[in-house]
Amino acid sequence: MLFRVSPLKSLIHLAQSRKISYGQLKSWYSGLVKKPPPIPPYSHIIQIGDPVLRVVADNVPNDLIKSSEIQFLIKIMKGVFKRYDCVGLSAPQIGISLRVFITEFNANHLKAFDEAERKTKEMKIFPQTVVINPQLKVTDYTKVIYTEACESVKGYWADVPRYRAVELNGYNENGEKISINAKGWLARIFQHELDHLDGKLYTDSMDRKTLTCTCWQVVNERSGKVEIPFNR
Ligand SMILES: [Zn+2]
């Protein structure tokens, strides 16, 4: 009899008669109802420990690159990429185990480094590019070591050795073949993103002694009262 109209309406009536606020009731009631977990593609970037980051991603069948499903995935990735102001983002990082990544190194990214660093690290502006089913060929085996970070290892960075130059072959979002010769910082970004598609993270190849919490000084300044956001 109590739940004949609707459980919530009856509960509101019960709350009023017992002088419980609507807010208290709503919070109690929502605690009873289990929310289903979100389904990928996510609008956030997943973090180290998520099994999806350890899987070798599947190729996108070439005839499906222009399908509405893959185009939808690219659209979601572009949105996340923009919101997080990424330099690189792979599909596994939003929970989809497919060989797709986006890179961009724009004027704002470049501004974060001084002139000397830009030169040493061979940094150049690179327009936003979607790469599907990439294959990487090392063209200069010289190993260069610089500090690297990853949106899936939020709050840390470390020194990582990478090859100085690579040739990247794959397809763009229109299904057209692309081939890019990359040196320096761009070659590093490509190797980082390729690793994501192979289930690897920079923590696998970093110099372990250099792993650094990016805000360790702020932790001291604020007596530990620091929060690291995992969404943007
Ligand atoms: Zn990453």
From TrEMBL:
It catalyses: N-terminal N-formyl-L-methionyl-[peptide] + H2O = N-terminal L-methionyl-[peptide] + formate. GO terms for cellular component: mitochondrion. Keywords: Hydrolase, Metal-binding, Protein biosynthesis. It is an enzyme of class 3 (hydrolase). It holds the Pfam family Pep_deformylase. CDD domains: Pep_deformylase. GO terms for biological process: translation. It comes from the Eukaryota. GO terms for molecular function: metal ion binding; peptide deformylase activity. Coiled coil: none annotated. Its EC number is 3.5.1.88. Belongs to the polypeptide deformylase family. Removes the formyl group from the N-terminal Met of newly synthesized proteins. This is Peptide deformylase. It comes from Ignelater luminosus. The lineage of its organism: Eukaryota, Metazoa, Ecdysozoa, Arthropoda, Hexapoda.
